[in-house]
Amino acid sequence: MWLAVRAAAVGAVVAACVVAGAALAQPRVEITRDLAGAKDHPLVPRYEGSFIIGYKADRFAEVDIPMGPVTLGSNGQRRFERMDALEGARTRLLYVAPFERTSLEVMRNYKDALLAAGFKPLFECNRDACGDSVEVPFYFNNDSRKLMADQVMQYAFAYGVVDPRLFVARLDRPQGGQATVIVFAAFQENSANAAAGKRVAVFVDIVESGTMEKRMVTVQAPEMATNLSRDGKQAIYGIYFDFDKADIKAESKPQLEEMAKLLKANPGLKVYIVGHTDNQGALDYNIGLSQRRAEAVVRALATQYGIPAARMTPRGLGPLAPVTSNATEDGRAKNRRVELVQQ
């Protein structure tokens, strides 16, 4: 009865609950070693006796940072009341702690170790203070965080979640940049392997800012003119926005200057300024965000560079016109862009 009620309330957890009975009926696959190729992050030691069952390292990614409890959104979906975001090198680790350990004990050890290493706490919640079913928006329904390489990773925190605890902390590094660590621990079941359940699982997400390789170059005005004449459009990657915002960042200035040169050199040219996002998040929200970003570009070119606003029409397409697949972070980065389209 409890599983049926929970599945109806959560929705996406239905699949895990359906397979749970069959999966748990299979022989236990004992966990006696770390996942092949996985390793601890040098900034975050593991709880003694734990094993790594999930691992992924990304050279550069955009990461949502929970900074408040879970609440029910206007669309009926669970979401964090407040979210921040970071970009940087990312490491995700999923551990199972030894049997007969509590999430309180495990989390206390992580917290003490991070504070001793100089990390400063940003957010913390325990049990009911985290909100209802915190594991759902944090991991199970969060494709940007969830590890998907095999079912044991996918079905961590699938059901039977008890005593969830979340801790977020940040370290200012002497050599520059910051490291932000998210630790989520809870007693849980695992639908794919019974040996990974009935024990505390620990998810650790580490983001190291300031580590992106600068590969996108500013597109010069003559090149834009050629591409518009030939293709009718020009993809722009040199205009930067903060995560989930439409405020243009200062490092966008070189690209805005080239766009202004193009428009001044071709006074008869009229363009659509088109905003594009990846497919992470709700469709309507992303379309609205891309529209606001397109409007911000038009506003900047008009107010800062004197380009008549009547020559530029802002449009937001959200994720509806990708240039490549959104299945990888590299693909999503290519899809997040502004385009000039000749009218």
Shape: elongated
Task: Give the topology string: H per helix, E per strand.
Answer: HHEEEEHEHHEEEHEHEHEHE
Q: What Rg is obtained from the alpha carbons, in whole angstroms?
A: 23 Å
Note the main sheet: 6 strands, antiparallel
Number of helices: 9
Count of discrete domains = 2
Average residue-wise pLDDT: 88
Strand residues, percent: 25-35%
Spatial arrangement of strands, main beta sheet: 1-4-8-7-6-5
Q: Which percent range fits the helix content?
A: 25-40%
Number of strands: 12
Low-confidence blocks of residues: 1-26
Structural class: alpha+beta
The N- and C-terminal alpha carbons lie at a distance of 59 Å
Task: Write a structural description.
There is one protein chain. With 343 residues, this protein is α+β, with helices and mostly antiparallel strands. It has 2 domains: 23-209, no CATH class; 221-342, OmpA-like domain (60s Ribosomal Protein L30, Chain: A), CATH 3.30.1330. The protein has helices spanning 2-10, 14-25, 103-116, 135-140, 151-154, 221-231, 253-265, 283-305, 329-335, and strands at residues 51-66, 70-72, 78-80, 83-96, 120-126, 159-172, 178-189, 199-209, 233-236, 271-276, 312-318, 337-342. Strand 10 (271-276), helix 8 and strand 11 (312-318) form a beta-alpha-beta unit. Helix 6 (221-231) packs across helix 7 and helix 7 crosses helix 8. The longest helix is centred in the C-terminal third of the chain and has 23 residues, at 283-305. The radius of gyration is 23 Å and the shape is elongated. It starts with a helix and ends with a strand. The model is unreliable at 1-26 (pLDDT under 50).
